């Protein structure tokens, strides 16, 4: 279980390097991730923030913060809150990102808990987005 938590933590911190920490990965990367896999992990992270990325750092960090709050992971919430603020997120944006994550979790709980028919749900959503 502890190993699984560490893997989740490392994955959740995937975007930490995008906040100006430089080329050298943080100590916790080296202390927790398998040595033979670290290089490919860092390369994968750099792709998300590279030239082809369509999301800016602030948006990525707000998404990561919302996910972190839902996991829940204190390490991830701490890091992504700091990263989002460093990328220019305001208090209002952070609150909205976390509240939006809670909103999604709420409806996921209701729909899954009530075993609402997925095909019916899809038809309703498609109708909501149909041209008028």
Walk me through this protein's architecture.
There is one protein chain. By secondary structure, the chain is mainly alpha-helical. It has a single domain, classed as AhpD-like. Helices cover 70% and strands 0% of the residues. It is built from seven helices and no strands. The protein has helices at residues 2-12, 27-32, 35-48, 57-70, 74-86, 91-113, 118-128.
Mean pLDDT: 88
Distance between the terminal alpha carbons, to the nearest Å? Answer: 51 Å
The computed structural class is mainly alpha
Annotated CATH architecture: Up-down Bundle
How many domains? The number is: 1
Low-pLDDT parts are: 5-21
Q: Fraction of residues in helices? A: 55-70%
Give the biggest beta sheet: none
Number of helices: 7
Q: What fold name stands as the CATH topology? A: AhpD-like
H/E series = HHHHHHH
Classify the beta-strand content into a percent band. Answer: under 5%
Itemize the secondary structure elements and their pairings:
Elements: H1 2-12, H2 27-32, H3 35-48, H4 57-70, H5 74-86, H6 91-113, H7 118-128
Helix pairs in contact: 4-5, 4-6
Q: TL;DR of this structure?
A:
With about 130 residues, the protein is mainly α. The protein has helices spanning about 1-10, 25-30, 35-50, 55-70, 75-85, 90-115, 120-130. The protein contains 7 helices and no strands.
